[in-house]
Amino acid sequence: xxxxxxxxxxxxxxxxxxxxxxxxxxxxxxxxxxxxxxxxxxxxxxxxxxxxxxxxxxxxxxxxxxxxxxxxxxxxxxxxxxxxxxxxxxxxxxxxxxxxxxxxxxxxxxxxxxxxxxxxxxxxxxxxxxxxxxxxxxxxxxxxxxxxxxxxxxxxxxxxxxxxxxxxxxxxxxxxxxxxxxxxxxxxxxxxxxxxxxxxxxxxxxxxxxxxxxxxxxxx
Length: 220
Prior knowledge:
Elements: H1 4-15, H2 19-24, H3 26-51, E1 86-91, E2 102-107, E3 112-118, H4 123-135, H5 137-144, E4 150-152, H6 170-173, E5 178-184, H7 186-189, H8 194-215
Antiparallel strand pairs: 1-2, 2-3, 3-5, 4-5
């Protein structure tokens, strides 16, 4: 569904990040970025239902799984009006009322990746996940070491309060983000079998999200 024209558009947008340029190239955005992304979300929906039925594929043009291309620059030092990537998030059904994990797809020239888990959870959610890691070490290491995926994210320098600094999993407990990551080449994203490739990564990472859901007392 995605073609090299998607990456060409985003590459040019990075060098011409202005409303004037975007307005002149809006048709390219619609044809090569937004419409293929919405088609991908629609096509992935039945696969997601099989993999993790508590997560949602929402193909609305606004307010759904596809991130807006416009940036919120109100409190940002960088006043560039547009994102230079396309982001797709498959949220948990409870995401409006709780901190929840998700399945993510990031499309950017030379920097695409699939992500699974939760990024920057709030304090109570972080503590709940750390507690689950400490109390269920075997289950955690099993889901953490999912095929084709790698645990990523920032860590504290010291053991968080209330946790044993000598815990064998202290390096994971010290994490501030709990997410799995798989880099994707531009060529991989534009292959005809990319939907299958992404679905395979989501299937490998689904037990990780179930662990997080259980830690956060969410239906999984």
